[in-house]
Amino acid sequence: MIALAKPVEHVPTGRLATLRRKAADCRDCPLWRHATQTVFGQGPARAPAMLIGEQPGAQEDLAGAPFVGPAGQLLDRAMAEAGLDRRALYLTNTVKHFKYELRGKARLHKRANAAEQAACRQWLAAELDRVQPRLVVGLGAMAAQTLFGNAFRISTQRGQWRDLASPVRGLATWHPSAVLRMPREERRHAAYLELVADLHQVALALAALARQTGATR
Ligand code: URA
Predict the structure, then answer these.
(1) Of these four, 22, 51, 179, 210, which has the most CB atoms within 10 Å of its CB?
(2) Angle between helix 114-131 and helix 141-148 axes, rounded to 10 deg
(3) Which one of 93, 95, 123, 142 would you pick to mutate in the ligand 1 pocket, going by the greatest count of ligand atoms within 8 A of its CB?
(4) Which atom of ligand 1 is nearest to the CA of 53?
(5) How far away, in angstroms, is 95 Cα from ligand 1 center?
(6) Predicted confidence (pLDDT) at residue 7 exceeds the cutoff of 90
(7) Predicted confidence band at 216 (pLDDT cuts at 50, 70, 90)?
(8) Residues 89 and 47: beta-carbon distance below 8 Å
(9) Where are the domains of the chain?
(10) Is the pLDDT assigned to residue 97 strictly greater than 90?
Protein backbone atom coordinates (compact mmCIF):
# COMPACT_ATOMS: atom_id res chain seq x y z
CA MET A 1 0.00 0.00 0.00
CA ILE A 2 1.35 3.44 -0.93
CA ALA A 3 1.43 5.66 2.13
CA LEU A 4 1.22 9.39 1.53
CA ALA A 5 3.59 11.54 3.57
CA LYS A 6 0.59 13.43 4.93
CA PRO A 7 -2.06 11.78 7.10
CA VAL A 8 -5.32 10.32 5.81
CA GLU A 9 -7.92 9.42 8.43
CA HIS A 10 -10.12 7.14 6.42
CA VAL A 11 -9.55 5.67 2.96
CA PRO A 12 -12.75 4.96 1.00
CA THR A 13 -12.86 1.59 -0.70
CA GLY A 14 -14.47 0.16 -3.82
CA ARG A 15 -13.97 0.08 -7.55
CA LEU A 16 -12.99 3.27 -9.34
CA ALA A 17 -16.56 3.82 -10.55
CA THR A 18 -17.79 3.53 -6.95
CA LEU A 19 -15.11 5.88 -5.67
CA ARG A 20 -15.94 8.36 -8.41
CA ARG A 21 -19.62 8.26 -7.37
CA LYS A 22 -18.80 8.67 -3.69
CA ALA A 23 -16.41 11.56 -4.43
CA ALA A 24 -19.12 13.28 -6.48
CA ASP A 25 -21.15 13.60 -3.27
CA CYS A 26 -18.24 14.58 -1.02
CA ARG A 27 -19.09 17.43 1.35
CA ASP A 28 -16.03 17.13 3.60
CA CYS A 29 -14.81 20.64 2.80
CA PRO A 30 -16.62 23.71 1.47
CA LEU A 31 -15.16 23.62 -2.07
CA TRP A 32 -18.07 21.65 -3.54
CA ARG A 33 -20.42 24.61 -2.96
CA HIS A 34 -19.10 26.80 -5.76
CA ALA A 35 -17.59 24.21 -8.08
CA THR A 36 -19.54 22.72 -10.99
CA GLN A 37 -18.59 19.17 -10.09
CA THR A 38 -15.99 16.90 -8.52
CA VAL A 39 -13.19 16.25 -11.00
CA PHE A 40 -12.14 12.68 -10.32
CA GLY A 41 -9.12 10.98 -11.87
CA GLN A 42 -9.18 9.43 -15.31
CA GLY A 43 -7.39 6.51 -16.89
CA PRO A 44 -7.12 2.72 -16.94
CA ALA A 45 -8.05 1.00 -13.66
CA ARG A 46 -4.67 -0.78 -13.63
CA ALA A 47 -2.50 1.94 -15.11
CA PRO A 48 1.19 1.31 -14.40
CA ALA A 49 1.79 5.01 -13.76
CA MET A 50 -0.24 7.72 -12.03
CA LEU A 51 0.33 11.44 -12.61
CA ILE A 52 -0.94 13.69 -9.84
CA GLY A 53 -1.57 17.40 -10.34
CA GLU A 54 -2.73 20.08 -7.96
CA GLN A 55 -6.41 20.85 -8.44
CA PRO A 56 -8.74 21.29 -11.39
CA GLY A 57 -8.83 24.63 -13.22
CA ALA A 58 -11.82 26.40 -14.75
CA GLN A 59 -11.94 24.20 -17.84
CA GLU A 60 -11.53 20.97 -15.90
CA ASP A 61 -14.36 22.11 -13.63
CA LEU A 62 -16.69 22.46 -16.62
CA ALA A 63 -15.51 19.31 -18.41
CA GLY A 64 -15.34 17.09 -15.31
CA ALA A 65 -11.96 15.70 -16.42
CA PRO A 66 -8.40 16.49 -15.31
CA PHE A 67 -5.88 18.37 -17.42
CA VAL A 68 -8.03 19.49 -20.33
CA GLY A 69 -7.24 23.25 -20.15
CA PRO A 70 -4.02 25.15 -20.98
CA ALA A 71 -1.95 23.25 -18.40
CA GLY A 72 -3.29 19.99 -19.82
CA GLN A 73 -2.32 21.03 -23.33
CA LEU A 74 1.22 21.76 -22.21
CA LEU A 75 1.31 18.46 -20.34
CA ASP A 76 0.06 16.61 -23.44
CA ARG A 77 2.85 18.16 -25.52
CA ALA A 78 5.46 17.29 -22.90
CA MET A 79 4.18 13.72 -22.58
CA ALA A 80 4.24 13.24 -26.35
CA GLU A 81 7.82 14.55 -26.54
CA ALA A 82 8.80 12.29 -23.64
CA GLY A 83 7.31 9.21 -25.32
CA LEU A 84 4.39 8.78 -22.93
CA ASP A 85 0.93 7.80 -24.11
CA ARG A 86 -1.65 9.69 -22.03
CA ARG A 87 -4.26 6.96 -22.64
CA ALA A 88 -2.11 4.43 -20.78
CA LEU A 89 -1.73 6.61 -17.68
CA TYR A 90 -3.99 7.49 -14.77
CA LEU A 91 -4.22 11.27 -14.35
CA THR A 92 -5.63 12.85 -11.23
CA ASN A 93 -5.31 15.76 -8.83
CA THR A 94 -4.47 16.21 -5.17
CA VAL A 95 -7.68 18.21 -4.67
CA LYS A 96 -10.76 17.31 -6.69
CA HIS A 97 -12.67 20.60 -6.78
CA PHE A 98 -11.96 23.87 -8.58
CA LYS A 99 -11.32 26.69 -6.11
CA TYR A 100 -11.54 30.25 -7.37
CA GLU A 101 -12.35 33.83 -6.59
CA LEU A 102 -14.58 35.93 -8.80
CA ARG A 103 -13.00 38.95 -10.47
CA GLY A 104 -15.90 40.40 -12.43
CA LYS A 105 -17.13 37.41 -14.37
CA ALA A 106 -13.75 35.67 -14.41
CA ARG A 107 -13.16 32.72 -12.08
CA LEU A 108 -9.57 33.09 -10.94
CA HIS A 109 -7.75 30.03 -9.63
CA LYS A 110 -7.10 29.99 -5.86
CA ARG A 111 -4.90 27.41 -4.18
CA ALA A 112 -6.71 24.97 -1.89
CA ASN A 113 -5.64 25.54 1.72
CA ALA A 114 -4.20 22.92 4.09
CA ALA A 115 -7.61 21.95 5.53
CA GLU A 116 -9.13 21.52 2.06
CA GLN A 117 -6.15 19.44 0.96
CA ALA A 118 -6.43 17.30 4.09
CA ALA A 119 -10.16 16.71 3.56
CA CYS A 120 -9.54 15.64 -0.05
CA ARG A 121 -6.54 13.37 0.55
CA GLN A 122 -8.81 10.39 1.15
CA TRP A 123 -9.70 10.34 -2.58
CA LEU A 124 -6.11 10.36 -3.77
CA ALA A 125 -5.25 7.64 -1.22
CA ALA A 126 -8.22 5.61 -2.47
CA GLU A 127 -7.17 6.03 -6.12
CA LEU A 128 -3.62 4.89 -5.28
CA ASP A 129 -4.97 1.86 -3.39
CA ARG A 130 -7.25 0.93 -6.23
CA VAL A 131 -5.03 1.54 -9.25
CA GLN A 132 -1.81 0.36 -7.57
CA PRO A 133 0.50 2.09 -10.03
CA ARG A 134 4.16 1.07 -10.00
CA LEU A 135 5.25 4.63 -10.80
CA VAL A 136 3.83 7.82 -9.28
CA VAL A 137 4.56 11.31 -10.58
CA GLY A 138 3.81 14.43 -8.60
CA LEU A 139 3.31 17.50 -10.76
CA GLY A 140 4.13 20.57 -8.71
CA ALA A 141 4.66 21.28 -5.04
CA MET A 142 1.21 20.34 -3.74
CA ALA A 143 1.36 16.80 -5.10
CA ALA A 144 5.07 16.44 -4.34
CA GLN A 145 4.63 17.46 -0.71
CA THR A 146 1.62 15.19 -0.35
CA LEU A 147 3.80 12.30 -1.55
CA PHE A 148 7.15 13.18 0.01
CA GLY A 149 6.51 15.68 2.83
CA ASN A 150 6.54 19.44 3.28
CA ALA A 151 10.32 19.76 3.03
CA PHE A 152 10.25 18.69 -0.64
CA ARG A 153 11.33 21.40 -3.09
CA ILE A 154 10.65 20.98 -6.81
CA SER A 155 13.40 23.39 -7.82
CA THR A 156 16.16 21.29 -6.22
CA GLN A 157 14.69 17.79 -5.87
CA ARG A 158 12.70 17.25 -9.05
CA GLY A 159 13.45 14.30 -11.29
CA GLN A 160 14.85 12.03 -8.57
CA TRP A 161 13.23 8.66 -8.01
CA ARG A 162 12.27 7.85 -4.42
CA ASP A 163 10.90 4.64 -2.97
CA LEU A 164 7.26 4.98 -1.96
CA ALA A 165 6.48 1.42 -0.93
CA SER A 166 8.81 -1.00 -2.64
CA PRO A 167 8.53 -1.77 -5.57
CA VAL A 168 6.57 1.47 -6.11
CA ARG A 169 8.70 4.51 -6.96
CA GLY A 170 7.81 8.14 -7.34
CA LEU A 171 9.30 11.35 -8.58
CA ALA A 172 8.12 14.92 -8.78
CA THR A 173 8.54 17.48 -11.49
CA TRP A 174 7.32 20.91 -12.54
CA HIS A 175 3.62 21.54 -12.66
CA PRO A 176 2.73 22.56 -16.22
CA SER A 177 0.93 25.69 -14.89
CA ALA A 178 4.11 26.72 -13.08
CA VAL A 179 5.98 26.41 -16.37
CA LEU A 180 3.33 28.50 -18.15
CA ARG A 181 3.49 31.18 -15.44
CA MET A 182 7.27 31.67 -15.57
CA PRO A 183 7.72 35.25 -16.74
CA ARG A 184 11.05 34.90 -18.58
CA GLU A 185 10.91 32.99 -21.85
CA GLU A 186 14.36 31.49 -21.28
CA ARG A 187 13.45 30.11 -17.86
CA ARG A 188 10.10 28.88 -19.15
CA HIS A 189 11.80 26.97 -21.94
CA ALA A 190 14.39 25.48 -19.57
CA ALA A 191 11.67 24.33 -17.14
CA TYR A 192 9.68 22.82 -20.01
CA LEU A 193 12.75 20.83 -21.09
CA GLU A 194 13.20 19.65 -17.47
CA LEU A 195 9.55 18.56 -17.40
CA VAL A 196 10.06 16.59 -20.63
CA ALA A 197 13.28 15.03 -19.30
CA ASP A 198 11.57 13.94 -16.07
CA LEU A 199 8.63 12.48 -17.99
CA HIS A 200 11.11 10.71 -20.27
CA GLN A 201 12.51 8.96 -17.18
CA VAL A 202 8.97 7.76 -16.52
CA ALA A 203 8.67 6.50 -20.11
CA LEU A 204 11.97 4.60 -19.74
CA ALA A 205 10.87 3.09 -16.41
CA LEU A 206 7.56 2.03 -17.96
CA ALA A 207 9.39 0.37 -20.84
CA ALA A 208 11.63 -1.49 -18.35
CA LEU A 209 8.55 -2.63 -16.42
CA ALA A 210 6.90 -3.86 -19.60
CA ARG A 211 10.05 -5.85 -20.45
CA GLN A 212 10.06 -7.37 -16.93
CA THR A 213 6.43 -8.41 -17.04
CA GLY A 214 6.93 -9.74 -20.58
CA ALA A 215 9.88 -11.81 -19.35
CA THR A 216 7.97 -13.33 -16.40
CA ARG A 217 4.89 -14.22 -18.42
N1 URA B 1 -3.97 21.94 -13.01
C2 URA B 1 -4.02 20.83 -12.26
O3 URA B 1 -3.29 20.66 -11.30
N4 URA B 1 -4.87 19.90 -12.60
C5 URA B 1 -5.67 20.01 -13.62
O6 URA B 1 -6.44 19.09 -13.84
C7 URA B 1 -5.59 21.17 -14.40
C8 URA B 1 -4.74 22.13 -14.08
Answers:
(1) 51
(2) 70
(3) 93
(4) 3
(5) 9
(6) yes
(7) low
(8) yes
(9) 16-71+85-175
(10) yes
Please give the distance, rounded to the nearest whole angstrom, from the Cα atom of residue 216 to the centre of ligand 1: 37
What does the pLDDT read at residue 156?
A: 98
What pLDDT was estimated at residue 1? 84
CA distance 76 to 81: 9
Atom of ligand 1 nearest to the CA of 39: 6
Question: With bands split at pLDDT 50, 70 and 90, how would you rate the model's confidence at 69?
Answer: very high
Distance CA 3, CA 125 (A): 8
Domain spanning 16-71+85-175, CATH architecture: 3-Layer(aba) Sandwich (3.40)
Q: In degrees to the nearest 10, what's the CA dihedral of 61, 64, 66, 67?
A: -60
User: How long, in residues, is the chain?
Assistant: 217
**CA-atom Rg of the chain in angstroms:** 17
pLDDT recorded at residue 213: 86
pTM of the model: 0.97
Q: State the distance from the centre of ligand 1 to the C-alpha of 139, rounded, in angstroms.
A: 9
